[in-house]
Amino acid sequence: MLFAHVGRSLRLAVGNANCRKEKDNMKRPNTKIILVLILILIVSPIITYLIAFICKNFHFIPPVGSVDAWIGFSGSIIGGGIAIIVLYFTVKQEHEIIEKQTELSIRPYIYCKLKNETIENSANDKEIVLKKTSYNDEFIEWAMINSSNNIANNIQIKCEQYYIELKDQSYKQVDSLEHYGISLYTILHTNAIFIPPYGEQLWKTNFIVDKDVMFNKDGAFKWGGSSFVFKHAITYCFSNILNNVKYTGKFEYAININVGREKKLYFHLHSLSNSMLDT
Length: 279
Hints:
- By secondary structure, this protein is an alpha+beta fold.
- It contains four helices and eleven strands.
- It has helices at residues 2-27, 31-57, 67-105, 211-214; strands at residues 110-114, 128-129, 138-146, 152-165, 171-174, 182-186, 193-195, 200-209, 227-239, 246-259, 265-277.
- Strand 4 (152-165) and strand 5 (171-174) form a beta hairpin.
- Helix 1 (2-27) runs antiparallel to helix 3 (67-105).
């Protein structure tokens, strides 16, 4: 129930933000229309004056009609041109608004969460732990959840990034965690993936610990103290059912490794953030 509520809240927040943005765009006048109108209003009197001047002073073409008639004719042509230009930009703007509304109506909303079991009697309901604490290969299970009534299509993992926590509790990005005795990578799917409305897709991230790298020969924890914290960031992309718009999301979680007696390791995980990136 908690994650369902989070999913609905996330979708509502993003949807409200998009609606506010769309309303702002509809209220904001089209700058192209304004610039064209200003240009025409400046140029049209000049053109009208030149036509009248030519008709009055030059006779390359035998004069037909009065100067006032030519001024009225040129004014009607210019007015018609203005109307056509305004109509073009108005139709174009309405078409863009309709396309944006269509995109929002079929847009899927995805968020991720860890699936490993919760620690009993923990005050933090996001804190979870791996079921095993041996040095055998483990995996972290997490899920992509579609919180909308639209299909999320062509889901792919774009990249994975790793960070270690510094003494000031900030994170520093590293190319790999193998230097710290940790191997972490997500098992990719070979086939195209889609998530149905309100469905979810499970993923597994292999988590391997090398105790020979993690501990010194005297058995002390190589990185000092009795704990080590790092962050795993997963960037993924997906599209709507028409495959004409691609979205990019990012899921981050932290892993805290605590060393117990006899070098027994405890792995505590907690989600850090779900975010959508600019595409």
